Amino acid sequence: MVDFEKATATVGVVGAGAMGQGIVQVSLQGGLNVVVHDAREGGAAAGAEQVLKRIDRLVEKGTLKAEDAAAMRGRLTVARGLDDLKPCDAVIEAVFEDLEVKRALFQEIEGVVREDCIIASNTSSLPIASIARVCRHKGRIAGMHFFNPVPLMKLVEIIRGPETSDATAQALMALGKRQGRVPVLVADSPGFLVNMGGRAFTTEGLRIQQECVATPAQIDAIMRDCGHFRMGPFELMDLTGIDVNYPVSMIVFSEFGYDARLRTTPQHKLLYEAGRHGRKTKAGHFTYDADGKATDATGADHVTDATPATACAVVEGNDRLASLLEEAGIAVGADDGKVALVAAPMGEDATTFAVRTGADPKRLVAVDVTGDTSRRVTVMTAPGADLSHRDAVAAAIAGTGRKVTAIKDSPGFVLQRMRAMIANLGCEIAQIGLATPADIDTALQLGLNYPLGPLQIAEDMGARTTLAIMEHLQAITGDDRYRPSLWLRRRALLGLPVHDAG
């Protein structure tokens, strides 16, 4: 088996569509010889031509030397048939997602290449075990899941099937590095790592919407401004396509035994069935104009003409809340029975907090001071609250230049429960041995553009705090969806780092 880090190796790419072209390009840029094949008449030549055009554009932009581009052109071969894959040290299949098609193709490739040639599938959803089942040499069969667009997305998941050999897995890790990617080793599992790990972000956003806690625009704004996510869950779903993310959600949910932590909502299915698939259909969670801009992603900011509050009483305060109130010009004093009662619950809703502390729910204004509060602050109240207190506090906070989002009662507001759910699912992925803690973080940051990986989020919030939020969510809702991962629970209780794999 070739050492891809050192040798001048030859890689075959079967399938010259968008993904295949990307794999060809990064392989050439990594100094590899590439043979590209496509079953369509003229498909391989057309795909190779597109790759070379992109390489020429890199020369025009000054990011690639002309001599390097010429060398890449010389290392690219268009296959006339599968027999031209004979010299390959690895073959990467990148055809459409059909198990029987892939099985037949793998059997054909096995009949051509050497016994030490690795054969990898770029599948994003089919089990490697199912593909390898029909192969003679199962130890050399694995997954190599790239992300679109391949030249820009640095992550590649190396999927190890039940019979994939250590040598095969390590060779593909080296090949991924040679291609300029960041490889992570993942066990064969439904959705692999990124598609599994990304479920919490979207499905919890959908759950919060279902409870009428906040609108999609409000949730997106909170996650962007306070959580530093590049996109909120609803704009992300509309971008990737609900015809993509709903079926994936259902596959992962069913294949993991209908674990409630992976459950989506009826609204998600409704949009799918209605053909509202996001930007591609100009309607999804939002509606889009001809330029692809959402026309109704508004209403995240709470606007009020109330007189800003100048005094309040604090119930179970903390330093971050004290600083925010000071900046807003709200003096903290004793409760005279008239002023707003301001609190910063962690994992509780305003109702539970009021009952537990004895605070007057009509005057209670809950403020989320977790995450980044420099641009946006979330406030919420219990049912039956006197909203004049909320509006007065919101007006004072808005006076500091911050935007305010007012939501309905929710355990953990929006940001706390979203981050805790992401962290908890990451911990569960570590618990079932799908990948190492470090690779889980790397994959979600590179594959989904998360500001922090799931376990890093748990560390950022604190393991004990994350566990407490999950326990409050489970107790208040009575829903097994919020069952804490044993990985998180044990490390929080023992005071161990969440990344501790011991």
Key descriptive features of the protein:
alpha/beta, 8-stranded mixed sheet, oxidoreductase, Rossmann fold, 3 domains, 20 helices, elongated, about 500 residues, single chain, N-(1-d-carboxylethyl)-l-norvaline Dehydrogenase, domain 2, 6-stranded mixed sheet
Q: Topology of this protein?
A:
Elements: E1 10-14, H1 18-29, E2 33-37, H2 43-61, H3 66-75, E3 76-78, E4 90-93, H4 99-110, E5 118-121, H5 128-132, E6 141-146, E7 155-160, H6 166-178, E8 182-187, H7 194-197, H8 199-210, H9 216-225, H10 233-240, H11 242-255, H12 266-274, E9 311-314, H13 319-327, E10 331-332, E11 340-343, H14 350-357, E12 364-368, E13 376-380, H15 387-398, E14 403-407, H16 415-431, H17 437-448, H18 454-461, H19 463-477, H20 486-494
Helix pairs in contact: 1-2, 2-3, 8-10, 8-16, 10-11, 16-18, 16-19, 18-19, 19-20
**What is the number of E strands?**
14
- The oligomeric state of the chains shown is single chain
Distance between the termini: 33 Å
Structural shape: elongated
Give structural notes.
The chain is elongated. The strands form two sheets. An eight-stranded mixed sheet has the order 3-2-1-4-5-6-7-8, with helices on both faces. A six-stranded mixed sheet has the order 10-9-11-12-13-14, sandwiched between helices. The chain is an alpha/beta fold and 502 residues long. The chain has 20 helices and 14 strands. It has three domains: 179 residues, NAD(P)-binding Rossmann-like Domain (Rossmann fold, 3-Layer(aba) Sandwich); 192 residues, N-(1-d-carboxylethyl)-l-norvaline Dehydrogenase, domain 2 (Orthogonal Bundle); 97 residues, Rossmann fold (3-Layer(aba) Sandwich), CATH 3.40.50. The longest helix has 19 residues. The mean pLDDT is 97. Its EC number is 1.1.1.35. One of its GO terms (biological process) is fatty acid metabolic process. Keywords: Oxidoreductase. This is 3-hydroxyacyl-CoA dehydrogenase. Pfam families: 3HCDH, 3HCDH_N.
